[in-house]
Amino acid sequence: MEVMKAAVFTDVGKIEIKEIEKPVPQKGEVLVRIKACALCTWEQRIFKGVSRVPFPYIGGHEISGVIEEIGENVDEQRWKVGQKVAIRILRSCGECHYCRTGANNLCEMIGKEGEELRLPYPGLGGLSEYLVVPPTKLFKLANDIPFEIGALSEPLACVIHSVERANIELGDDVVIIGAGVMGLLHVMIAKIRGARVIVSEINAERQKLAKQLGADEIINPLEKDPVEEVKKLTEGRGADVVINTTPVSKVAETTVQIAGKRGRVIFYSSQHPDYPIQISPDWIHRSEIVITGSVSPDITDFYRATKLLSSKIVNPQLLISEIVPFEKIEEAFRKATDPQNYRIVVQL
Fold it and tell me: What range(s) does the Enoyl reductase (ER) domain occupy (predicted)?
């Protein structure tokens, strides 16, 4: 039996590198050598004890790698050893109500990926040296882009899904609340869609980067009321689209107030803690605003993300604060949870 290394959460604030059995591709499977894994906010919350999972647990889902071996009955014209790939690790069973109605990002099997990956512990598995997956989970990356860039396919795909939900149109006034990694990816995609982008952010360094990446206007909500400032910028109408990328419920309440008539409001981030907010149902009735969420990318979103990265239309290099070797995984998580940093990428 061959073994490989995996970073395993063993408790809150503790992650250890353990040896586990290296998977062997079966019929219809591909073996991928994982080369980079970006540390998502969700895994950071596991590390801090905010999100609860059963320990031991193998996290990691923002991943890129290279095909190392191809099993039987896999199209070897399409999938070749040495090809760089990103992996959409979420399950899509193809059988449940959501998969069959075009919402494979809401598949009933999401959360049970460990079973499919044949890992000894539950989890998404990206912090392992190898994964075996069916080719339906693979998305080609241009072989000239760095693995750390390819690892951002998944967060970019999440943002593409959000922008599609928001139906951003040419000339729309789009307010993005929060200029962390996900907020800044929203800035980049909203600009590609032809929007005027207004960013609400309190941190001066993040404000600066938002402008560098294309934001047209910046509002500091600690200094000015964002509702009134957006009205000033839109001749009193309010925004066409408002996207909240922060986990703060009180901010979610403000998000709704920023929208103008027929506005589209996206609650992008999960909420921690999840407090109820006040919304006027009569305002929704009279304004025809649409309030919705956005969670996880579907297959099309992921495909578009890898195309945008491979063609260099989107370059998220400035959103990577540091690349940390696999052997320093705990240090990587400490850096990832530092609010001064953007994405930390683990190099396997």
Answer: 10-346
Longest dimension (CA), the chain: 68
| Cα–Cα distance, 223 to 95 (Å, whole number) | 51
Residue 303 in any domain: the answer is no
Cα–Cα–Cα angle for 17, 18, 24, nearest 5°? 120
Alpha-carbon dihedral sign for residues 198, 203, 208, 214: negative
β 84-87/138-140 pair status: antiparallel
What CA–CA distance (Å, rounded) separates 252 from 179?
15
Record the pTM.
0.96
Q: Are residues 186 and 139 in the same domain?
A: no
pLDDT digits (tens, 9 = 90+) for 233-267: 999 999 999 999 999 999 999 999 999 999 999 99
Flag whether 101 is in a domain: yes
CA distance 302 to 299: 5
Inter-residue contact 174 to 160 (CB < 8 Å): no
What three-state secondary structure class fits 292?
A: strand
pLDDT tens for residues 94-132?
Answer: 999 999 999 999 999 987 766 678 889 999 999 999 999
In a domain, residue 82? The reply is yes
Q: What is the rounded CA–CA span in Å between residue 260 and residue 234? A: 9
Q: Which residues form the domain of 134?
A: 3-152+316-347
Position 307 confidence tier, pLDDT thresholds 50, 70, 90: very high
Q: Which two tokens stand for residue 38?
A: 């970006």
Q: What pLDDT was estimated at residue 114?
A: 64
Nearest CA to 8 out of 145, 91, 129 is that of: 129
Residues 249 and 181 in one domain: yes
